[in-house]
Amino acid sequence: MTITTLVKDLPLHDGKDVSLNGWVNNFRSSGKLSFIEFRDGTGYMQVVAALDGLDANSADAIRKLTLETSVSIEGKVSKHPRRPAEYELQLKQIRIHQIAEEYPIGKKDHGPDFLLANRHLWLRSKKQWAIQKVRNTLINAIYEFLNGEGFTKIDAPIITSNACEGTTTLFEFQYFDLGKGYLSQSGQLYLEAAIYSHGRCFDFGPVFRAEKSKTKKHLTEFWMMDAEMAYVEHAQNMEIQEKMVKFLFKAVLDKNSAELKMLERDLAALERVVKEPFAKITHAQAVELLRSMGSEITAEIDLGANDERLLAQKYDVPVFIEKWPSKIKAFYMKRDPSDPNLVLGSDLMAPEGFGEIIGGSQREDDYQLLLSRMEQENLNALEFKWYLELRKYGSVPHSGFGIGLERLVTWVTGAEHIRETIPFPRMITRFYP
Ligand code: 4AD
Ligand code: MG
Q1: Tens digits of per-residue pLDDT, 60-73?
Q2: Does ligand 1 lie within 6 Å of residue 356's CB atom?
Q3: Which end of the chain is more exposed for a tag (fewer CB within 10 A), N or C?
């Protein structure tokens, strides 16, 4: 019996016979030699089949191969003759599980609509494979970082009775006899309750925004990690975010060098994130800078896609934009004690034009101030009764932030569009497959 292994483990079996289970990613023949590009989910390798040396069943199978045919193969592992870091397999036996019908993807360049309609198949493409591997590393590194920093995972609900991030992007539905329910836009408010039990908490799961904008950066369902910390103020909030982002980039550089190479990602840009300190400017400074670069932004509007590009011309490291006008930020952000028109909030902007990755702030911890902010925003204080009450029973200064997983994956992988970073993207114009 030969040992069954995985492509990623081939270096452990140099010179030995092994078997593997997977798919034909590509193949070509030249005379009596056939070359199969084989993949098994853990990686890709070349299989060399000399027809003369195979038993009749295997030789017959080789003649029948099509793209995506599922196969089990057996052979001897050896170093790739021209690529010293890679291994290949000298085929001894091959068994077909199913001969794939003519595969729709791969023969020519396809447009995004075709690829998205075939997302169930497109996921198998090399670039899509590499992006999901990086996403997986980031997910695990987020858990690793937060566990190391003493956070407890608290699972916030998805069905909620109040909005978190304003009402313009809410998905609503009728919740039995109890009135309107909403799909969560962020678990933040619930985490604010949980810090009084655990000190530092996080959640990590899908959130929903009925975004009417068709951009490269918006999904209607995306994954967010919200973190919330008692006794942490605005400046320390940004320090923790910077430490986390550096940790995540280092994890990807350590674990995904093959994937980053497939994605042709500029490694120097990723290394800069790990090594260099992030920049920090106030919203007012950002407005002044952007206007001097030709933007029409004013103090009362959020940055647009063009502003994000301009900012990237100025900075090649991530930039915190802090102290925003309260008018354009969420009701829960704490006022800046030195200027009540501003809030102690920050957005972390990625370099290279990837835009906002993290939104965070210190939270208003005073009952009356929070109530008056809610009144200004025409929010129904009754729906938020529980949230307001947190300011009555041992209120403390506290801060938190939310990172959009797909924005992060887009940045790390350099993907063209956010839709490539989530297995099955949901956008205003698409929710199939
Ligand atoms: O800035 P946002 O709206 O902040 C919050 O929801 C806070 N409650 C988070 C917190 O303090 N706990 O969203 C956070 C991040 C953004 O910076 C962005 O990365 C991502 O979520 N995001 C989106 N990603 C994809 N598609 C969308 N429509 C997104 N909207 C926000
Ligand atoms: Mg934001």
Answers
A1: 999 999 999 999 99
A2: yes
A3: N
